[in-house]
Amino acid sequence: MHLQSGHGLDDVALVQAGAKSVVGIDYSQVAVRAAQRHADELGVACRYVAAAVPAVPLASASADLVYTGKGALVWMADLAGWAREVARLLRPSGHLFVYEAHPAVVLWTWDEDRPRIREDRDYFARDHVNDTFPARGAVERQWTLGEIVTTVAAAGMEILHLSEYPEPFWRSGGVAAAAWSGRLPNSFALLARRAQ
Ligand SMILES: C[S@@+](CC[C@H](N)C(=O)[O-])C[C@H]1O[C@@H](n2cnc3c(N)ncnc32)[C@H](O)[C@@H]1O
Predict the structure, then answer these.
(1) Ligand 1, atom 15: nearest CA belongs to which residue?
(2) In this structure, which residue's CA is closest to atom 22 in ligand 1?
(3) Ligand 1 center to residue 195 CA distance, Å?
């Protein structure tokens, strides 16, 4: 199950990696229709449902794996509600995998000569206004890494793995930010398992 599945390209990869089938959830009808058309054209076992996370209209314990990320958690106003919904959707011992922008990326400038910290951002702020393509103008939620890990654990999932990476999950075309050159965290991966 892919929460906030967007264009669904990762779902094709999940099937190619061995998933029997993938259900993608996104509240954008446009994204859901495009992802379904794409999957059908490729003949991969992906099905898309239009719904607003964390209210997912699917049965409890119906997912072996819940995957989300690449710009998903910034849209969650209630992280505890999101984590409880993930735990509800997972079968006992099912896994949650999150691959997401590192919460610190809001601080990095896109200067190309050297990395700098933005004067107008705060790691511990509750939100900020995105001022870069493609989400320019959107108010994005901020969750610290500690909040994400603790919220997942509090919802009844055991943290199995947490890694931070220097590579961003996405690079704006034509930008070669020094903050992406390897010295700073730009993404993270978290693997957790629902209790029995
Ligand atoms: C940056 S995209 C990431 C999509 C996908 N994970 C990927 O890697 O391509 C964020 C997606 O979250 C969806 N979204 C935002 N808030 C949502 C919500 N509350 N419920 C469902 N989808 C939501 C948007 O429509 C968008 O497709």
Answers:
(1) 75
(2) 26
(3) 27
User: What phi and psi, each to the nearest 5 degrees, are found at residue 87?
Assistant: -65, -35
Please report how the helices 79-89 and 145-154 are oriented relative to each other, as an axis angle in degrees rounded to 10.
40
Q: Which atom of ligand 1 is nearest to the CA of 70?
A: 8
Ligand 1 midpoint to CA 151 (Å): 20
Domains and CATH numbers, the chain: 53-194 (3.40.50.150)
Along the chain (196 residues), what's the average pLDDT of each consecutive run of 10 residues? 97 96 98 98 98 98 98 98 98 98 98 97 98 92 98 98 97 94 98 95
pTM: 0.97
The encoded tokens of residue 129 equal 């206004």
For residue 194, with 0-12 CB atoms within 10 Å meaning exposed, 13-18 middle and 19 or more buried, which class applies? Answer: buried
Taking CA atoms only, the protein residue closest to ligand 1 atom 26 is: 6
